[in-house]
Amino acid sequence: LKPQSFKQQKEAKMRCSKARKLISPYIDGELTESEKREFEAHLRVCKGCWSEIEETHGLHQLFENTEIFSAPFGFHSRVMANVNAKKPGWSPMIPVRVRLLEAVMVLLLIVVGAISGSFLGKGLLPERAGNGLTASLHLDVFNSAPPGTLGGAYLAMTEVKDEK
Amino acid sequence: MKDSTDDLQIISKFKEGERLAFEDLILKYQDKIYNLCRHMLGNAHDAEDAAQDTFIKAYQNLNNFKPNASFYTWLYRIAVNTCLDYKKRPFFESIFKHSAETEESFQERASGEPSPEKLYENKLLGVALYKSLARLSPKLRAAIILKEIEGLSYEEVAEVLDVSSGTVKSRISRAREELKRLMKEIREQN
Predict the structure, then answer these.
(1) Taking CB atoms and an 8 Å cutoff, what residues of chain B touch A59?
(2) Which of A51, A52, A120, B93 has its C-alpha lying 20 to 30 A from A102's C-alpha?
(3) % residues pLDDT > 70 (chain A)
(4) Which pLDDT band holds residue B95 (cuts at 50, 70, 90)?
(5) DSSP string, B76-95
(6) Predicted confidence (pLDDT) per residue in A94-144, tens digit
């Protein structure tokens, strides 16, 4: 259809680049009355924009055939079970922060413990005490056959025999 | 979705300590939220997880909800953000695994009693649409799904996505252009 009036002729002068931007809002009914009038006047004289709007409208109609999915059976019960396990106001970030803080504190304690232990071992403990401690831990202090036992008597006999 | 007064009454009960009132909100919105997540993520398993996460987050933060906003746009926003977080997961797996199901769905939903050729054409277009949606950037996908599938207005989409109406207008327009281009590509490959 050709534009009839001078006003329509003026409205039809909309540029294609502007008209293309109006296709989507036109289909969605989001244009103002004056924008709509101007756009429709342009469509009457522009085959390119007309075919563009037909294509976009086809896509819009295609969406009407898309499946509408319903929540699976028992969905709300599962959600309620989950929310009851967590109190309102709970934020997943809080436990992570607390856990991080705990980890940092433990690490700090280990480091402080190691440093102070090393300091005490080197500076505060007397040399002898250190040696005594080491000696007490040595395996040589362990007597496999203490005197007064059967093993002790046997070892004593073998030692006397060896001396002879 | 329009009876927001009901929502506010339920929320008020919830805030007064009647925690079970939240179940009414789940029952009212579970299908819409699941449908949104299903289209955003493309497979049933992730969609259920995301929809559940959405309601759990809503439950945890309902005390902070301000009644001057619409509850459903607030809930949709949580759902969209949850789905955007899920985008790192293997995407749209089952939509291709279950392409036969998708094809059947399109076939059944085709209007009237079309000829076998028309049915076949619809089937191809439907599959091409799903595949194209999968290739769309998450922001454009969210905008077009909220508009075309959830039926929200530009203003509502803007509220959900927390952007201006102008941005929504531009995203929907770009999404449609991209979809047309991608669908052509897919159909040429076939």
Answers:
(1) 129, 176, 179-180, 183
(2) A120
(3) 63
(4) very low
(5) HHHHHHHHHHGGGSPTTHHH
(6) 555 666 778 888 888 888 888 887 766 665 555 544 455 555 555 555 566
A86 to chain B, minimum CA–CA distance in Å? 8
Residue of B181, B126, B59, B81 whose CA lies nearest to A85:
B59
Instruction: Tell me how far apart the alpha carbons of residues B146 and B131 are, in angstroms, rounded to a whole number.
Output: 18
Stretch B73-82: mean pLDDT? 96
Token couple for B44: 């049933």
Which of A56, A65, A71 is closest, CB to CB, to B126? A65
Q: In whole numbers, what is the pLDDT of chain A averaged over residues?
A: 76
The type of residue at A82 is: N
Least Cα distance to A74 among B80, B26, B39 occurs for B26
Q: Is A144 helix (H, G, I), strand (E, B) or coil?
A: coil
Could you identify the residue written with the tokens 């008020």?
Answer: B12
> What's the CA gap between B35 and B107, in Å, rounded?
19
Q: Do A75 and B34 touch (CB under 8 A)?
A: yes
B44 to chain A: which residues are within 8 Å by CB?
69, 72
Asked whether the beta carbons of residue B179 and residue A24 sit closer than 8 angstroms, the reply is: no
Neighbours of A30 (CB within 10 A): 19
Token pair listed for B165: 């109406």
Q: Is B47 on the interface with A (CB under 8 A)?
A: yes
- What's the Cα-to-Cα distance from B29 to each of A20, B71, B99, B167, rounded to whole Å? 36, 10, 27, 26
The three-point CA angle A52-A64-B45 to 5° equals 120
pLDDT band at B98 (very low <50, low <70, confident <90, very high): very low
Of residues A28, A59, A69, nearest to B154 (C-beta): A28
